[in-house]
Amino acid sequence: MQLKIFGSSVVPDEEFTKGLKTLFDIEEEAWDDLANWFLTTKSFDDIDDSSSPAIAASSLLPEQFSDCVYSLRFVLEAWQRHDLQLLDIQRDLFTLGYDNEKIDRLSAALLLRIEPVKERVYASFMRFEHENAILPTIEDIDVVCDIRPIFEDYVFPAPVKGKGVDYRKILGFSYVVLVELLSEDIEGKTRKLSFQMNEKSLEDLQSALQRAREQLAILKDSTRELFQIK
User: Fold this and answer.
1) Are 18 and 24 contacting, i.e. CB atoms less than 8 angstroms apart?
2) Distance of alpha carbon 131 from alpha carbon 161, whole angstroms
3) Is 206 helix (H, G, I), strand (E, B) or coil?
4) Which of 31, 65, 174, 230 has its CA 20 to 30 A from that of 160?
5) Can you tell me the distance from the alpha carbon of 51 to that of 64, in angstroms, rounded to the nearest whole number?
6) Nearest-CA neighbor of 77 among 15, 7, 28?
7) For residue 29, how far is the Cα from the chain centroid?
8) What is the residue extent of each domain of the chain?
9) Which CA distances in Å does 165 have to 146, 150, 156, 168, 172?
């Protein structure tokens, strides 16, 4: 079974199949919610765009909304990438076992409405692919402020009696920032990096990031016209 929306070597994955089933099981009124979101969102990422009024007003549960978005986004990407016609998509849906009458209603009520954004959806997909290729990207950041007592001596090895220092005596306190970064590569493999910083190191990092932001702004300004970057 070769489906045009999957190209020559790809078959439907479990997530796509689940989303497609949800799309055909929900009330047709909910298709309006999905169409409104696709026509108004800028990111085409329902997780990043979770506060969108279109999602908040939807009658769908969050999981249902995400399932439908996944399958529709895939269809739109394939529509643009493989230069498909609506009839190609309808035939694929029929091949996957869906009723012709409902396919026609889905096409008229939803697919044709969101067809104008297929180029932007595909561009968003390719941007994600390029931005996440080669090196892992940061997915989560945890930061905790901590205070540590500074004792006069170590507890190990055991202190020698008669020394001039006392492991029970507090000399003061040190303030540190604990950081844990979670990164993920394009294949879904995750890595954690944990480290600590004193106030001076934190200031150095903040200054470096600010200088990097300034450089990025300069780079964007100098290349926007050259490459017509929006």
Assistant:
1) no
2) 60
3) helix
4) 174
5) 16
6) 7
7) 28
8) 4-131, 137-227
9) 26, 13, 14, 9, 15
The distance of Cα 78 from the centroid of its chain, to the nearest Å, equals 20
> For the purposes of burial, counting CB atoms within 10 Å of the CB of 107, is it exposed (0-12), middle (13-18) or buried (19 or more)?
middle
DSSP assignment string, 60-118: S-HHHHHHHHHHHHHHHHHHHHTT--HHHHHHHHHHTT--HHHHHHHIIIIIHHHGGGH
Residue numbers in the chain where pLDDT is lower than 70: 1, 8-10, 49-51, 227-230
In the chain, beta strands by DSSP E: 137-151, 170-184, 190-198
The first and second tokens of residue 102, run together, are: 């409902």
Looking from the CA of 181 toward its CB, the CA atoms found within 13 Å total: 8
pLDDT in tens, 121-173: 999 999 888 888 888 999 999 999 999 999 999 999 888 887 789 999 999 99
CA angle 67, 69, 73 (to 5 degrees): 125
pTM of the model: 0.69
H or E segment to which residue 121 belongs: helix 118-131
Distance CA 37, CA 56 (A): 10
The 190-198 sheet, strands edge to edge: 137-151, 170-184, 190-198
CA 24 to chain CA centroid, Å, is: 25
